[in-house]
Amino acid sequence: MSLLQDSVNTLNQVPQQTVELASTQENLNLIQLLMKGGWIMLPIILLFFLGLVIFIERYITIRNASKREGGLMAQVKTNVLSGRLDAAIAVCKSSNSALSRMLQKGLSRVGRPIKDIEGAIENQGKLEVSKLEKNISILGIIAGIAPMLGFVGTIFGVIQIFRDVEMAGGIDIGSVSGGLYVKMIASASGLTIGILAYIGYHILNMMVERLILRMETDAVEFIDLLDEPGA
To answer: What Gene Ontology cellular component terms go with this record (predicted)?
Structure first.
């Protein structure tokens, strides 16, 4: 009876030891896990932080530029129709937004042909758009480079594994599978960062495109205002 009880206790300890081993492996924090990917993880992590900083900075900038100033066009229209161009220009200067700078450039050309005014507004609009798109292309570059760096890390890892196998003179399934597990971290990290950068790149581009459409609409409204008989 005692022998049977000892056998039962031994069987009960095996799953418990397995659970404890799994728990120890799961307790690896994120930094330790990433560092197992090798030296290639350093540039991948740098790309992640670079992309994060660019996305947050551009998102805030574009969001602030997208805030609609409801009274701007109304004040400009009132002053233009009243013949107070200096007051309209002063309103634009006090606003200090992309649209106000475009309108200010157009107001400074009042008295010239409409084509000249349109050209001035269009050129100012291109400058404003270039400011908004600053550094967004870097996110596109990160989206392409990060996955490739991850694959490079995995390839170097596989090369190292086969070199260790050759030096050992035999194949140890445990070491090979463990090495692959470690080196696949680089690929997973690179792909994840690449996907995030790709998403961020397109989010910012969509925000800029919506803002451009609104600026073009307001510019057309301003040109129509100058074409009115009383302007």
So the answer is: plasma membrane
